[in-house]
User: Which sequence fits this backbone?
């Protein structure tokens, strides 16, 4: 049994300690926003925040998350930065297949928390670990700039 | 993916063969509880004996699967017959219906249609399915008629209620009004009364000048639930008691299980069963599946299986041997796909001033959708229920029915979002669907009734076959003494996608058009033009359509060779093309627009001292849509390079959702560049050498160029945009690299070592 705080809720889950956080969330907690894309830290589809820091949940054992705040894309709508990012994403019609976008959004939120006016180079550095096979990169970049502007206003 | 020959044979740009049934044969399905309205086509119903033509409108107890429903709660639900795999079909279909219904955009939601070819067949395919960039093309009238008829019934209901002539009623933004008396009602208030109105015999569709939603900029997409985690993909589906299956697949295609030691796997926690299943050689591979309560348990137990494989019928060649054979074949004449004038004679004739010959090599490519393949199956007694991001409903129903020995209509398919597909989920053999069904069947034989979710790992997905076929092209072309293109002979060598599938019928005289499309219809005015094809049939690597199919390779060889000819003729590559396209106004229009917007006439700004910069152009028609792209590159001394900018012009007829058109061009360019710059599936001894994103690297944020998309204004029938952005991207970049470095890259993916500064 592990105790996991997911989006502010305490969950008691029957997960072995070495089970990746991703599968614990998806299959046991049924929080399916974080996606499986590669299982090896290569694509970012599984990105969640642990105490505000973005991590690849597919290579993070659930034991490393106990006692920390786990935030997934389902849990960012009430947060100022989270809302700004989701709104920019919708305003610019960023999504295509959408499968990577939970991870993209979580990485973008983490970027904007630490950097209020990211440059294109900052965006490259923060977002290059998040793959989008639909290549929505042009819009992801534009949406991050837009969210930054909205947050500055 | 292009499935039917009709698709290729329809004249480009012509109003397409979307047949709209005559109005008297339309009928509405009416639902109890006051919900209205659906529209479907009757001929196939008649064929199924369910209904007879000319039947009066009938009330049906429950009819979930029409195109539009108006709820008493004021909701408008569009039932989408096309899969939403990222290309914006849900938004497009909703736009067409909402336009004619005069609905309020936010009140419209979209759900996926179930498998039911009678109602939801693709009018181009003749069966239910998504692909070939057909959705907007085939639905343009059908969906608008559905919306218009629903609107007419709401108006009729209001006219009756208010006792006023229908002609004096107006509808906008989801409100029905009678201006003279200032009466008004929302759709929901009229839904029940509308349901009992007769089906209109004839509906008037808006003229383009009346469009409010069609053509509107930045209409919000209908799948924005993908931004908050609430969208459900197959990977996310959970059914009560469901087991997850992870499979040990053979390391070589078509190998068979010889022996399994599953002792360790079975003893692992949460494992419910181990199922060995037979494949169908040439369709899907057999293997050993572990079924467990959750994915991680199944995955670990799969890795604990000891499987011995029988390679007797396995495919054992490597890429090197395959390409050697293809190059050899390319030296011999093949089956003729096009023959204008006398290419051989002209190439040997005395008018020739210059001959250029080039050999192009294209590797196998995996689709590598973000969501690895998966499928949920629940078997009943004589029935099968499937949940999937489903691309070819009819095809898959037939295949599953044959496997289980039941009737196709006993195979229910629920539509979910697909996390990408690029063609892969529309497998003509139904490969992964049959695998899922086989596993569920095997589990049932062990007494397990639970639904089964088959999950492929990224590694399974990369190594699982059904690739874009590898190809070799050899082009031999000549300029005459005036610097004009005189002759062109192109030989293509590669596997057929359609051979051995249900789509084989479309192969004519041994030519699978999906092997030569884009080459056999070369638009340039070259008097002596011959295109030949070799289709080796002993290479059994599973192949499939991959976003833009044959055009993925033909656009590359043809647009690079034209560029070489221009250079050899000492002419500007844009003007050289333009002159050869005098009779191709659509090609010319996109070429001109892209060149103008890219500033073709202005010299490119130089890079730093060590950098070489270049600009290249390419134009290509696929799926009736014309796209030209101008690429700008900067090459570093070590040969690595950055694609800085791509300017794209597209003519897709009337742009229903301009923003979706732009998005598809952006994404298509990125998808094409990923393959050109980075990707190859290679085999050694029949074993695929790539398995995850480390060795099959996807294009990333820092590699994506700035993209500008310009849409040619058009009132012609809409054509598709899901695929046509892909083909010109690689040749435009290759031509830019040639302009920067003088090096012509003829093998994909690009070898940057060749671009090193010497
Ligand atoms: S699934 Fe975790 S990085 Fe790809
Ligand atoms: S939107 Fe499809 S992978 Fe990013």
Assistant:
């Amino acid at each position: 049994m592990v105790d996991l705080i997911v989006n502010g809720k305490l969950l008691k889950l029957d997960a072995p300690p070495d089970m990746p956080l991703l599968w614990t969330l998806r299959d046991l907690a049924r929080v399916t926003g974080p996606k499986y894309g590669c299982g090896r830290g290569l694509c970012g589809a599984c990105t969640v925040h642990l105490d505000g820091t973005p991590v690849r949940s597919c290579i993070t054992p659930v034991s490393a998350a106990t006692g920390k705040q786990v935030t997934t894309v389902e849990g960012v709508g009430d947060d100022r930065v989270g809302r700004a990012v989701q709104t920019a994403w919708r305003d610019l019609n960023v999504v295509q297949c959408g499968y990577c976008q939970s991870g993209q959004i979580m990485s973008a939120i983490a970027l904007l928390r630490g950097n209020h006016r990211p440059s294109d180079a900052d965006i490259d550095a923060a977002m290059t670990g998040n793959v989008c096979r639909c290549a929505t990169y042009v819009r992801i970049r534009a949406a991050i700039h837009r969210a930054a502007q909205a947050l500055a206003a | 993916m292009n499935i039917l020959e009709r698709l290729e044979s329809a004249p480009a740009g012509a109003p397409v063969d979307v047949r709209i049934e005559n109005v008297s044969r339309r009928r509405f399905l009416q639902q109890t509880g006051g919900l209205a309205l659906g529209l479907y086509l009757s001929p196939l119903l008649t064929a199924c004996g369910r209904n007879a033509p000319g039947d009066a409108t009938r009330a049906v107890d429950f009819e979930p699967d029409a195109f539009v429903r108006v709820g008493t709660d004021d909701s408008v639900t569009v039932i989408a017959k096309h899969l939403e795999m990222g290309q914006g079909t849900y938004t497009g279909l909703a736009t067409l219906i909402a336009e004619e219904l005069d609905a309020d955009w936010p009140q419209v939601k979209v759900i996926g249609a179930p498998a039911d070819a009678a109602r939801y067949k693709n009018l181009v395919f003749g069966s239910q399915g998504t692909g070939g960039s057909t959705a907007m093309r085939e639905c343009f009238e059908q969906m608008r008629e559905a919306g218009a008829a629903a609107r007419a019934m709401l108006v009729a209901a209001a006219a009756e209620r208010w006792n006023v002539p229908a002609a004096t009623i107006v509808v906008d933004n989801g409100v029905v009004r009678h201006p003279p008396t200032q009466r008004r009602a929302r759709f929901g208030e009229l839904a029940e009364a509308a349901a009992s109105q007769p089906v209109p015999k004839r509906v008037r569709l808006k003229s383009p000048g009346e469009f409010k939603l069609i053509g509107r900029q930045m209409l919000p997409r209908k799948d924005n639930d993908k931004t908050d985690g609430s969208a459900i993909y197959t990977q996310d589906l959970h059914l009560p008691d469901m087991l997850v299956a992870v499979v040990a697949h053979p390391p070589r295609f078509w190998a068979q299980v010889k022996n399994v030691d599953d002792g360790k796997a079975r003893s692992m926690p949460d494992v419910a069963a181990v199922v060995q299943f037979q494949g169908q050689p040439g369709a899907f591979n057999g293997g050993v599946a572990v079924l467990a309560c959750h994915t991680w348990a199944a995955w670990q137990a799969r890795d604990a299986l000891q499987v011995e494989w029988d390679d007797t019928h396995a495919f054992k060649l490597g890429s090197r041997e395959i390409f050697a054979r293809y190059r050899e074949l390319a030296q011999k004449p093949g089956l003729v796909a096009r023959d204008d004038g006398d290419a051989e004679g002209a190439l040997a004739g005395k008018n020739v001033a210059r001959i250029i010959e080039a050999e192009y090599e294209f590797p196998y490519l995996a689709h590598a959708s973000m969501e690895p393949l998966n499928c949920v199956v629940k078997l009943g007694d004589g029935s099968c229920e499937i949940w999937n991001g489903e691309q070819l409903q009819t095809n898959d129903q037939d295949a599953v029915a044959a496997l289980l020995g039941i009737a196709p209509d006993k195979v229910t398919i629920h539509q979910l979002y697909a996390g990408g597909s690029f063609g892969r989920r529309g497998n003509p053999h139904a490969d992964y669907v049959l695998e899922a069904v086989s596993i569920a069947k095997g589990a049932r034989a062990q007494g397990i009734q639970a639904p089964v979710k088959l999950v492929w790992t990224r590694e399974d997905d990369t190594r699982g076959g059904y690739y874009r076929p590898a190809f070799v092209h050899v082009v031999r072309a000549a300029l005459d003494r005036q610097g004009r293109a005189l002759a062109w002979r192109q030989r293509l060598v590669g596997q057929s996608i359609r051979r051995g599938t249900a789509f084989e019928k479309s192969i004519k005289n041994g030519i699978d058009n999906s092997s030569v499309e884009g080459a056999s219809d070369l638009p340039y005015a070259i008097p002596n033009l011959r295109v030949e094809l070799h289709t080796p049939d002993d290479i059994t690597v599973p192949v499939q359509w991959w976003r833009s199919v044959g055009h993925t390779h033909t656009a590359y060889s043809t647009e690079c060779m034209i560029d070489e000819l221009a250079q050899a003729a000492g002419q500007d590559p844009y003007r050289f093309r333009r002159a050869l396209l005098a009779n191709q106004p659509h090609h010319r229009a996109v070429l001109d627009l892209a060149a103008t917007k890219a500033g073709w006439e202005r010299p490119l700004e130089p890079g730093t001292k060590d950098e070489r910069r270049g600009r290249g152009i390419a134009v290509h028609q696929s799926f009736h849509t014309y796209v030209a792209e101008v690429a700008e590159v900067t090459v570093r001394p070590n040969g690595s390079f950055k694609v800085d900018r791509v300017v794209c012009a597209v003519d897709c007829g009337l742009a229903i959702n301009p923003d979706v058109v732009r998005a598809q061009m952006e994404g298509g360019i990125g998808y094409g560049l990923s393959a050109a710059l980075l990707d190859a599936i290679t085999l050694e001894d029949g074993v695929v050498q790539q398995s995850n994103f480390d060795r099959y690297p996807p294009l990333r944020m820092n590699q994506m160029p700035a993209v500008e998309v310009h849409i040619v204004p058009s009132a012609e029938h809409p054509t598709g945009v899901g695929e046509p952005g892909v083909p010109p991207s690689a040749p435009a970049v290759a031509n830019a690299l040639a302009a920067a470095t003088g090096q012509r890259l003829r093998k994909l993916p690009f070898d940057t070592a060749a671009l090193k500064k010497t």
About this structure: The longest strand of chain A covers residues 2-6. The domain at 2-73 of chain A is CATH 3.10.20.30 (Ubiquitin-like (UB roll)). Chain A touches chain B through 57 residues (CB under 8 Å).
